[in-house]
Predict the 3D structure of the following.
Amino acid sequence: MELLIVSVASLFAGFVDSIVGGGGLILIPALFATFPNTHPATLFGTNKGASVCGTAMASWQYSQQVRMRWAALLPAAGAGLLASFAGAWLVTVISPDFLRKLLPFVLLLVLLYTLAKKELGRTHAPSYSGLQEQLIAAGIGAVIGFYDGFFGPGTGSFLVFLFVRLLGYDFLSASAAAKLVNTATNLSALALFIVKGHIWWHFVLAMALANVAGSLLGTRLALKHGTGFVRIVFLLVVSALILKTSYDAFMR
């Protein structure tokens, strides 16, 4: 029964995450509710083991249908991988609790800005090219990669927003770019959890298969309905993140 519960949660998490990020909203609470007495690091490691499979599948699916700007995205993924490992190491030294109360307000600003700029991310018009685009993309990967390793909630949504706002991508292209970078950051954090033994392999396999199935469905919907659909899901996921992080920060 426990395996069934977390596998179903992983399916829905893969679906949401493949469109615009935010799968952790579903899977991490499900793991903590199902295994309340387990060390948190083991649950985070198990979550990463499953979610990295769905994220990688979504990244591959998008790359078949969306024009990926590889010259910029590969440096972004590399920077994200290294920075995520650094963030994951730092969290073993200092607590990220100071971010809990700040995060809901940052997410609220993202939501309000996106709502105010109604044309934001509706058309794909990259603002930069060449070395300038590579440096900005690598900066996005480094900053959000570090955040993902150190704290984590909303990583995919932050990546989508920054690719739209700073680089001029539409929401569909930004989601595709975010999946590639997020795959790298997930791999980095997963490597650290594996080294420290914080992962349940007997759960990861079934959860990974479910996550990939959800990812396939979500990616196909995003590709079918385009950037307007992704924008709506983005707004819904960010709103849910605001509620969840506000509860964690001020009411728990």
Observations:
- The chain is about 80% helix and 0% strand.
